[in-house]
Amino acid sequence: MSPAGQPGPDAGRGGAVNALLAAVRGRAIVSCQAYPGEPMRDADTMCRVAQAAAAGGAAGIRAQGPEDLRRIRAALDLPLIGLWKDGADDVFITPTIEHAFEVAAAGADIVALDGTGRPRPDGRTLAQTVRAVHEHTGRLVMADVSTYDEGVAAADAGADLVGTTLAGYTPYSRGGPGPDLDLVGRLSRDLPVPVIAEGRIHTTEQAAEAIRRGAHAVVVGTAITHPTSITRWFARAIGDACPPG
Ligand SMILES: CC(=O)N[C@H](C=O)[C@@H](O)[C@H](O)[C@H](O)COP(=O)(O)O
């Protein structure tokens, strides 16, 4: 099986899907993203970060925006989860079908998109969006959800994978400093599709616990690829430990 999901000669789409999922099972996927205006917000830099993650054993890469995706696709033969963050609306992860098609065209094997039940800017339902991605691009869909009910609905809508990405990032979901491992466990137990643990996984222990609770794979972003945040964590801890005066 090829890590990028190329099937054997007689495997059909099902073979490609299975190969892709098998390539990341029980492994780390590294999210390589920088935010607008940041020093690392540049496709070449993100590509190098992805290459560095691959050298460390990342089984897959998650990345944002067509330009970053094209660069990373050209440089790495690893399963690639693509998204496009756009807009100021509630739904900002690959918000419309046009964004999803662009992400697929840029080389993503899996198109990640908002999998909540909130109104989408293009007026399509999640099920319509998933169907369109399947029919027009043949790519898998990862639905990024924030609650248990959204995960169930996303699987019903045809998503191939469900991620806990948005837990704590909708006004009605459970936030907190760490990942929602309870949500990971409940979705992994009940859904008929693989669950990807994602969101605020900052330690190796949390990542391992997500797998123990049934996650198919674990996406780690900030704790590996966002030096500004990591520096802030250390700076705060050091400052808190510093005796007064
Ligand atoms: C909520 C949202 O917009 N999440 C984004 C989704 O792609 C990224 O900003 C996160 O970095 C990614 O989910 C990985 O999570 P963490 O960086 O916490 O390991």
UniProtKB/TrEMBL annotation:
One of its GO terms (biological process) is N-acetylmannosamine catabolic process. Pathway: Amino-sugar metabolism; N-acetylneuraminate degradation; D-fructose 6-phosphate from N-acetylneuraminate: step 3/5. Its EC number is 5.1.3.9. One of its GO terms (cellular component) is cytosol. Keywords: Carbohydrate metabolism, Isomerase. The keyword Nucleus does not apply. The keyword Isomerase applies. GO terms for molecular function: N-acylglucosamine-6-phosphate 2-epimerase activity. It comes from the Bacteria. It catalyses: an N-acyl-D-glucosamine 6-phosphate = an N-acyl-D-mannosamine 6-phosphate. PANTHER family: N-ACETYLMANNOSAMINE-6-PHOSPHATE 2-EPIMERASE-RELATED. Converts N-acetylmannosamine-6-phosphate (ManNAc-6-P) to N-acetylglucosamine-6-phosphate (GlcNAc-6-P). Belongs to the NanE family. This is Putative N-acetylmannosamine-6-phosphate 2-epimerase. It comes from Streptosporangium canum. The lineage of its organism: Bacteria, Bacillati, Actinomycetota, Actinomycetes, Streptosporangiales.
